[in-house]
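Schema walk-through. Below, the input block comes first and the output block second. Nothing else is stored per chain. Lengths vary across the set, and this one has 425 residues.
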Amino acid sequence: MFVSNLRLVNFRSYCDATIGFGAGLNVVVGQNASGKTNLLEGAWFALRGSSPRTRREEKLITWGERFTRVELELDGPAAGPQAVEVAYAPGQGKRARWNGVDVASQDELRGRTQVFIFVPESLLLVKGSPARRRAHLDAFAAALDAQYAAAARELQAALRQRNAQLIAVRHGAPATTLDPWDVQLARAATALGCRRRDLVAELAGRFATAAAGLAPEGNSFCLQLVSQLSAVGYDESALLEELRARRPGEISRGLCLFGPHRDDLKFLEVEVGGSATGLGGDEAADAGGAAHPAVVAGPACGPVALPHGGRDLRLFGSQGEQRAAVLALLLAEQQLATARTGEQGTLFLDDVMSELDDARRRLLVRQLTSAGQAIITTTDRHYFIEEELDQATVIELPLSGSLAAGAAAPPADASGPAPPHVDAL
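--- output ---
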């Protein structure tokens, strides 16, 4: 399915604006502050019920208005036209409708479509914390697999309960009171750990292909899950023994220090035709700074081979390489979701061209031509060649019904925002 129409009411810089998209490549061109990022954020909000940029949903409402509402239409040969509407108002909460019927939960909304987004904050998938990478993996997998979502919820519940009991023991409760929580955590941890391991294994080959396709020099890349559970073979009994062996240290900290809640994901450049060796246990947890970068040949020194295990792009990748790694991950996720569901989800790509060199831009567009619908925003249409623009749907911003840069209210000659039928929801 693909996004055919989008209407934004009181959303960020849009008072009441409607836009149509094509089924293939869409290029949205506009100056800074013309609403490019807001456009993609609004489409994501309709399909996911949340923003990729903020957790404070009141920030999504146009200044001075009481609510925001996003209406989106999907189309495709299988399911036919579909309509989704998501609205939010402070004090009233959020409500979603699919073809006019209320959606019971945000998880249900997310499970109905597969969509993927790159915004400037997405670079934190490489540059940021392990927690961000785990959250991204889990959100992607939970939208595909209800059992994965249940396993993730069970682990979080087990961690909260065991951490609370660790603190109770530190304050005088018998250590034996941890026994049932150890069992519960070991069961939940191995269940989620095995699913996450299998997910990364499915993504890894697709990521390597997509990343190589974005590397004009013919470099080779891999995706690697770094998990303490590999040290215990992802075995529940072995994990239970490990938790009991670590109990004194965890009691003193009041915190569980071993399990899939400490997993990380690495983006590595490896030798062409090779792959990085997996790490496990405490070695994996502490390996973040072990690698050293490849050195470019120069008059002072000769070429240096890639370090053992690969060059970690988080530590040593350029801004362009890190951006390409995130894009390769999104392409890999789209391909996996297509294989699982038969539906090729939309890619929302905000300002992806600005820090890619021309060779990588051409390679990216080439991959997108077979990726179903992609909506790319840019400040400069010259990032695309004429042949690419001829085959794309080109949309110029600003749209009618949007605020001028820096404005706090609609211009005098613009129509006002659409009033709610009864209230915002």
